[in-house]
Amino acid sequence: xxxxxxxxxxxxCLIPIFLMVMAVPFHWGTLEWLDTKIPVTHFVGAVIxxxxxxxxxxxGHYARKMNLVTNFGKFLDPLADKLLVSTAFxxxxxxxxxxxxxxxxxxxxxxxxxxxxxILAEGGEVxxxxxxxxxxxxxQIIAILLLLxxxxxxxxxxxxxxLVALWVALVFTIWSGIDYFYLNRKVxxxxx
Length: 192
Known about the structure:
Layout: H1 3-23, E1 30-33, E2 36-39, H2 40-65, H3 71-94, H4 100-122, H5 131-148, H6 161-183
Antiparallel strand pairs: 1-2
């Protein structure tokens, strides 16, 4: 297994650790910064999530730089991203930090695009993420981090940047999903 794939596997391994920190009722106290009260478990979860998210950029960087792009990496990298983001969003709904309907739309888009990728792969096509998809991913990551950190540091300004970021992520999620299906609409054309 090459280095980029090992980094991707490490991201998958961080998901259950993130889940355990966030879901098991540990009582490590609360941090207070700039009028923001953040449970320590949410802070630790945010750090784990941030590290896991950074591995997405790192594995891609090394795969391209060292010409180590593999089918295993093409399969596991987007799967790891979707597992990490979906886990975080579902936990945020459970913690009542994100509206369920927004998370349902985000996760539904991920399932739909994954299904489309499977159909394309069956025909021998592997579609790399485009810039809109990358923007979608990073807006989701930023929204998740702001929600995990209870809107730190913007809470001191009485500005809900966490919710603004979530709405921006929702817009890019829908937009990139529509774009993905539009660009690959030939899959659904009736063959004669």
